[in-house]
Amino acid sequence: MAHIYDTIIIGGGPAGLSAGLYAARSKMDTLIIERSKFGGQTATTDELENYPGSIENCTGPELIERMRKQAEEFGTKFAKDEITTVDFSGKIKKLVGNKETYEAKTIIIASGAYPRLAGFESELELRGKGVSYCATCDADFFTELDVAVIGGGDSALTESIYLTKFADNVTIIHRRDQFRGAKSIQDKVFNNPKIKIIYDSVVEAAKGDEILEGLTLKNVKTGEASDLKVDGCFVFVGYLPISELFTGKIKLDEAGYIITDEEMRTDIPGVFAAGDVRQKSLRQVITAAADGAIAATNAEHYIENEFDELHV
Ligand code: NAP
């Protein structure tokens, strides 16, 4: 018979690691399953200036490693596997992975979100050949070169500032004439001499066969087309939830985010969700970590108060 965990957490980002910490600290038999790298999007973030306490240039990977160690010290176990099927119909929930099948009394889904594509011609063909979705991973390749950044939210602005540490010139291309990102970050962008801004414009195509050579832009107000010679193009146009696995199994909203109540309960008893995969208004490390703590605490309450009463 398979080992039955008290809780299995799907995803090893801030929500999952925080859930692991709280669950293990409550003496729950806890497993975190991560399919690739711990940390999710936080692992690709250079500076976390708005996470309380991280005042000394704390990077995403450093914070994640501390969270992982802390959860481990309290007894959280970890598995590297990709879950391909879930069965939430019984009292014991089942997860089928590429390597193993897992069973638990409760599940906490913390699978996060992934970068949205901008949708220009040759975007996928030139991905990894000049088109990137992670400045922390790829900025180094563009030392003393010219790069473009697409987007106008916090990610585009924050990562543009980071990219100026490497690239000679960073050109932000935004589809409107106002940024969506926080005013304090906008000020840093406006005051950075290495950053140029092209408003009211979208990228229509990336040029280059083997490697990116430039972008074709279109001004959305005038319809005018122009070329921009760049060596790199970083796309930061938002994120999409990683929730396909749960379609038809739990309640999702129209965009695919998991719907929970304030206690992180989904519509299936014993199944909780936390972090960016959840329908919510603020997707930040701090809200992901808070979600994880709430989900784990309620998973514990569920086992104590409801699990034994179930006869499914
Ligand atoms: P976001 O806030 O959704 O912004 C996406 C940006 O991309 C918007 O400016 C949007 O333009 C633009 N966009 C969307 N689709 C596009 C397309 N197809 N072509 C061109 N532009 C497109 O996403 P985000 O910046 O990744 O942030 C996600 C969440 O993480 C937010 O809650 C944000 O506050 C948070 N975050 C916070 C920090 C921080 O340091 N505090 C850092 C990163 C992220 P419009 O403005 O015209 O819609």
Automatic annotation (TrEMBL):
It is an enzyme of class 1 (oxidoreductase). InterPro entries: FAD/NAD-bd_sf, FAD/NAD-binding_dom, Ferredoxin-NADP_redctase_2, Pyr_nucl-diS_OxRdtase_2_AS, Thioredox_Rdtase. Keywords: Disulfide bond, FAD, Flavoprotein, NADP, Oxidoreductase, Redox-active center. It catalyses: [thioredoxin]-dithiol + NADP(+) = [thioredoxin]-disulfide + NADPH + H(+). Its EC number is 1.8.1.9. Binds 1 FAD per subunit. Residues 5-292 form the FAD/NAD(P)-binding domain. GO terms for molecular function: thioredoxin-disulfide reductase (NADPH) activity. Its cofactor is FAD. SUPFAM superfamilies: FAD/NAD(P)-binding domain (SSF51905). Gene3D superfamilies: FAD/NAD(P)-binding domain. Homodimer. PANTHER family: THIOREDOXIN REDUCTASE 1-RELATED-RELATED (PTHR48105). Belongs to the class-II pyridine nucleotide-disulfide oxidoreductase family. This is Thioredoxin reductase. It comes from Clostridium rhizosphaerae.
